[in-house]
Specification:
Length: 532
C-alpha cells in the first residue's frame, strides 16, 4: 500500500510538471512574435514565429488543454507586444493581458481540431483557411478601441516590405495577417507531419501564387504632385512650467522654417497645453508664425475647453489671421491613458499606475481640413493611426495627405515610439495617400502613397524641425473601395464552420441508436401475518 501510494504521488507529480512545462512553453511561444515588430523589426520572423505555438497546440491531449494553451499563448503575446506599458500600468498590464489573452482560447481548440494527429489532405486545406480566419476574428475583437485598439496586429510587422505594402492596398493589414498565419500553419505541418507535407507544400505554393497575382494586379498609386510639409519635434521638456517652455521651443523651431517654402507646419500631440479661447495671446503668437513661414500651422491642444465642458485633445488649424475654425476633436481615446473604462469599477487603476485621473471627452466626427493651395489634410491623434478604418474614411472624404499628431514621451526609452511610427506606412499603403506622423518627442516619420519612407526618421534624441518633400496621389485603392473584405470573408468562414459542426452533431444524434428500455419492475407485496 505504501509503495502504491508513492507511485500514485509520483505520477501526479509528473502530470503537474508536464502541465507547468506546457504552460510556460505556451507563454514563451506566444511572446515570440514581438521580435517581428519594431524595434527589432525582424519582419521575416513573422512567417515562422507562430510555428512553436502551433506545434504545441496540435499535440494538446484534450481540447480543453488546447484552449488553455491558447489562452496562455495569448497572454504571452499581449504582454510582450505591450511590455512598454509596465511603467505606467504596473500589475494592471498583466490583468489586461490575461483578459485579452482569453480571446485565443477558441483559436487553440481550432488548431487542435484541424491539425492533431495525421490530418487528411482535406483537413490540411481547410486548416489553411480556417485557422487564419480564426486569427482574424481575434484581431477583429481586440481591435475595438475599448479593448485597447489594433496595436500589434500581426500583419503590421510587414510595414517595410514593398510587396506586403502592395497587398495592403488590396486588403489592408487584415490581408497581411491572414497570409502570415497561413504560412505559419503550412510550415508547422511541413515540420511535424510527414504525411501532410504534400498538401502543406501545395498550400504554400497556392498562397504564393495568389499573393503574386494580387501583387501584380493591384494598381500602383500615380504621383501627381508634391507638397512640402514641415514637422516640429521639440523633444522632452521637463520641470516647472514645462507647458510654456515647450511652447517657446516650438515657436523658435518653427521660426527656423521661414523662407523654406513650406505648405504646412505640423506640431505634435499636446503641443499646446492651454485652451486657445482662454489664451488668445498664444493663438496670436502662432498666427504670427504662420505669417512668417507663409503656411498654416496645425497644433494640438490638450486642455479643458472654454466653450465645452471637459478636457479634449484637438487638432486646431491656425492661419495668418488666427484659428481658421477647422478643428478635430480626438474620437478614439486610449483606455486607461485618457479615460478609464467603467471607472466606478476600475478606478483603482489610478492608484497602481499612471492612469487618467479624469476622463477626456470624445469628438463626434472626422474632419478634412483645407490648408490652402488646394491641399486637404485629414488629421488623426495618437493611436488613432492604428485604426485602418479611420484613415480609409479620410481618404474617401477627399484628404490628400493623412496626418497623425502623436506623443510617446511616457514610453521614450521603449520600443513603442518606433512601433507607432511604423503604423503610418501601412495606413499610407492602404489608402494610396501619403502620411505624416508628427510627434512631440519622436519618432516622427513620413511615408509616400505606396508606404515608402520619405526622408529619415526623427529619433527620440532629436529636438528639431524638418521639411519633407511629400509626393501626392489621388487614385482609389481596392482597400478604400471595398473596405475590410478579408475580415468579412473570415466571418463567413467561421460562420460556415459553425454551421457545419452543428449539422454534424445533429446527424450524429439522429444516427445514434435509441437507448434500450429497461424491463419494468414489479413490486411483490407479501402478506405478513401478525405475530402472536
Amino acid at each position: 500500500m505504501i509503495w502504491g501510494g508513492k507511485r500514485h504521488i509520483r505520477r501526479l507529480d509528473d502530470r503537474l510538471a508536464s502541465r507547468w512545462w506546457r504552460g510556460a512553453a505556451a507563454v514563451l511561444a506566444g511572446a515570440l512574435p514581438m521580435l517581428a515588430f519594431p524595434a527589432p523589426s525582424l519582419w521575416w520572423f513573422a512567417y515562422v514565429c507562430l510555428v512553436p505555438w502551433i506545434l504545441l497546440l496540435r499535440t494538446a491531449p484534450t481540447g480543453k488543454r488546447a484552449a488553455y494553451d491558447g489562452w496562455l499563448g495569448g497572454f504571452g503575446f499581449m504582454t510582450a507586444v505591450h511590455h512598454w506599458l509596465l511603467p505606467s500600468l504596473n500589475v494592471f498590464t498583466f490583468v489586461i493581458a490575461a483578459l485579452l489573452g482569453a480571446l485565443w482560447a477558441p483559436w487553440g481548440r481550432l488548431v487542435r481540431r484541424f491539425l492533431a494527429g495525421v490530418p487528411s489532405p482535406g483537413r490540411v486545406c481547410a486548416a489553411l483557411v480556417v485557422l487564419p480566419s480564426g486569427w482574424l476574428m481575434v484581431e477583429l475583437v481586440r481591435s475595438w478601441q475599448g479593448l485597447g485598439g489594433p496595436w500589434g496586429l500581426l500583419g503590421s510587422s510587414q510595414w517595410q516590405v514593398e510587396p506586403a505594402l502592395r497587398l495592403a492596398s488590396v486588403g489592408g493589414v487584415w490581408l497581411l495577417s491572414f497570409l502570415v498565419v497561413a504560412v505559419n500553419v503550412a510550415l508547422a505541418l511541413l515540420i511535424s507531419v510527414r504525411a501532410s507535407r504534400v498538401p502543406a507544400l501545395a498550400g504554400l505554393v497556392a498562397t504564393a501564387a495568389v499573393t503574386s497575382a494580387a501583387w501584380a494586379w493591384s494598381p500602383r498609386p500615380e504621383v501627381d504632385g508634391r507638397v512640402r510639409i514641415a514637422v516640429v519635434q521639440p523633444g522632452i521638456v521637463d520641470g516647472t512650467e514645462s507647458g510654456m517652455k515647450r511652447f517657446d521651443l516650438e515657436e523658435r523651431l518653427t521660426r527656423e522654417l521661414a523662407g523654406q517654402d513650406v505648405d504646412l507646419v505640423v506640431w505634435g500631440e499636446s503641443s499646446v497645453g492651454y485652451d486657445l479661447g482662454q489664451r488668445p495671446d498664444l493663438a496670436r503668437r502662432v498666427a504670427a508664425l504662420s505669417r512668417q513661414v507663409k503656411a498654416d500651422v496645425l497644433v494640438n491642444v490638450d486642455a479643458r475647453r472654454s466653450d465645452h465642458p471637459g478636457i479634449y485633445k484637438s487638432s486646431v488649424l491656425i492661419g495668418p489671421d488666427g484659428p481658421t475654425g477647422d478643428r478635430y476633436d480626438k474620437m478614439r481615446l486610449v483606455p486607461f491613458g485618457e479615460y478609464i473604462p467603467a471607472r466606478s469599477v476600475l478606478g483603482w487603476a489610478t492608484s497602481v499606475g499612471k492612469a487618467a485621473g479624469e476622463d477626456r471627452r470624445r469628438g463626434t466626427e472626422q474632419v478634412v481640413m483645407n490648408v490652402g493651395n488646394g491641399l486637404r489634410v485629414g488629421p488623426m491623434v495618437c493611436f488613432e493611426s492604428a485604426f485602418p478604418d479611420m484613415s480609409r474614411h479620410l481618404a474617401e472624404d477627399g484628404a490628400d495627405v493623412l496626418l497623425a499628431q502623436s506623443s510617446t514621451s511616457t514610453f521614450q526609452h521603449s520600443w513603442a515610439p518606433e512601433q507607432h511610427a511604423s503604423l503610418a506606412a501601412l495606413r499610407a499603403a492602404e489608402t494610396g495617400r501619403p502620411m505624416v506622423h508628427a510627434t512631440l518627442t519622436g519618432v516622427s516619420a513620413v511615408y509616400g502613397p505606396s508606404g515608402e519612407r520619405i526622408g529619415s526618421w526623427l529619433g527620440t534624441d532629436r529636438s528639431t524641425s524638418a521639411v519633407y518633400e511629400v509626393p501626392t496621389a489621388h487614385g482609389v485603392t481596392p482597400y478604400v473601395r471595398f473596405g475590410d473584405w478579408p475580415v468579412h470573408g473570415a466571418l463567413l468562414v467561421i460562420a460556415g464552420l459553425g454551421a457545419a459542426e452543428g449539422l454534424r452533431a445533429l446527424r450524429a444524434r439522429r444516427r445514434a441508436p435509441a437507448p434500450r428500455s429497461r424491463p419494468a419492475r414489479t413490486v411483490r407485496v407479501s402478506t405478513v401475518r401478525p405475530w402472536r
